[in-house]
Amino acid sequence: xxxxxLMRSGDGSVxxxxxxxxxxxxxxxxxxxxxxxxCLVNVxxxxxxxxxxxxxxxxxxxxxxxxxxHLRSAAPLFEGRYVxx
Length: 85
Known about the structure:
Elements (H helix, E strand, L loop, with lengths): L5 E3 L5 E3 L3 E7 L2 E6 L2 E10 L4 E4 L12 H8 L7 E3 L1
Parallel strand pairs: 6-7
Antiparallel strand pairs: 1-2, 2-3, 3-4, 4-5, 5-6
């Protein structure tokens, strides 16, 4: 696993030096893009955890083999409390 640098941009997106981006489109939706491919990831609020839950399962697609890992590393940089489930 390579270490990548993560940077939070002014719009709240998280960008990686590896080339992927996690962008909050709304409180219920994240756009994840890597290269020229992108996908949408659902988010919901859990009152019990007092956090927004990002529903990211490992993709079987070759386009997003590290989706869950990338979102887990980006979650602390989003505004508010996010956890990957």
